[in-house]
Amino acid sequence: MVMERSREFNQPLHMCFIDLKKAYDSVNRKTLWRVCRAYGLSQKIVRMVQLLYEDTSAQIRIDYDVSESFAMNTGVRQGCILSPILFNVYIDYIMKQVIQQANVQGVTLSYRLGDFWLTDRGNGSHKVHLLTLMYADDIVVMCDSPKNLEHFIKVFERVTNDFGLSMNIQKTCTMSLKQFEKTIGKNETKGKEKDASSNIVIRDQNIETVDNFNYLGCNIANDQTQAKEIEVRIGKASNAFNSLRRIVWYRKCISIQAKVRIFKACILPVLLYGSEIWCLKAVEEQRLNTFYMKCLRTLLSVGRVGRMRNDLILELSGQPSLEKILRRNRLMWFGHVNRMDNEEDRPMLPEKVLFSSFTDAKRPPHEVKLRWKDKIAKDLTMCEIKNWRREVQDKEMWRKTINKEVKSTTVRSDAAHVMHEHKERAKKRRTNERLLDYNKKMNTPPSTTTVINVDATCSICGRTFKSKRGMNIHKRVCIQKQSTNASTDTKTNEMHQLTTASTSNKNTTTKNIKIIDLLIKKDKNQYVCPNSMCQKILKAQGATMHVKPCAKAWLIEQGVQI
């Protein structure tokens, strides 16, 4: 939300993603007990927690060898349910000290709760200052200038060292949001972007500046595009899907209903992780939908060659379209944020940021990209939600409204029968297409094309074969013979007489006739097939083998014994 607002109003935004080196193992326990007392915990509770950490020891195991135990005097216990809470208290106290000493406000936004989207950023709006976002030891610092960001990081590095923690310079990165040129000259294009980089030095080492960063499993880009995030999501979902191919998807003993449930539990959450805040283009949505439909086709054992429509795939599997799932996720998060109120019915920070904007800021003279709030406004219209303020407060009613079009139905009972019929039709279509391609190569007229049946019996001569492959090979020759006979129907009687004469008079002269000598010779030792429907240019080698089956009637006329 903050990055979207900054880009919309062309405001500078500089961020630093801080990584702490072995944060949980570097906590100073004596300082931790004092921090707990400073937060109001009684001495009895602090003493009870302190007893859990007395005489703690650890061992190192390498393969099957275990080292001797040694004492552990720092850090919180690994695997203990109290460790995350204790660390949150510890890092919160440190951040308060850093903010107090740095005296930096960060990014200043204004919000008003009376309107859906803030239209009047003047009088009556409240201020909200965003400086840090923390989730355990993952910390993001946001400032409106590189100077303030550098000052805050240096103060943070000094204070954390006093409390026993240390920054990992190699894994700490900075990122600056791209801005548009404010001045438009004769030689400058409208909407031209510029990079606002920052150079921060800590311990004589430069902090790396990146264009993309993976924060809490989501890819954040400095140009506010989701192309990299979609690529990562599809890659991870594809790996998860392929790992279950032989185990689940290719097993015929597992029902389609069970496969769909496994897909929804194991693959779909990986694919749509973080989709609540996505603002995708049509191309990016199409990439996601292509992968989604590809997975459903695999569950139903229907390939893309089968040409089954997407709506039929969704109907057979009982699943909603991906567009409806994305709409449901956005509205679900939108309703959750709007219900975030504290004990005094005051909005919490996520709701403030959702309805916030920059004070006295104007949009630059360029086209504004599609925003998340534009997606929400469109989703509310698609779901026919008129009074969203009232409906969003009722959690159950809101859930029913947004899940109205996303409810999964059971797999059709005749799904197996429908898929079997579709596969048979696809086989016939592919066979006929191959036959048409062959006839085009052999210059056979379309009138001689015959539709091949499913059984292994030739529809022309009635010959039966053991396999369809053998029948298809035979039929090519059979169709060719039929076309040759059709072109010579007017000379059937003469052919019969010549055949009788050639069989009765087996003299030595007919036996010695060479077929190559009877053919019409062209330049460069090339010959022409005497079949009027073929007329293929032949070489000396192989001409005899081609003419014998192709121009059988012509050879009989010439008195050649076949």
UniProtKB/TrEMBL annotation:
Ranges where the Reverse transcriptase domain occurs: 1-220
Superkingdom field: Eukaryota
Signal peptide: none
Pfam families named among the record's database cross-references: RVT_1 (PF00078)
SUPFAM superfamilies in the record: DNA/RNA polymerases
Protein name: Reverse transcriptase domain-containing protein
Source taxonomy: Eukaryota, Metazoa, Spiralia, Gnathifera, Rotifera
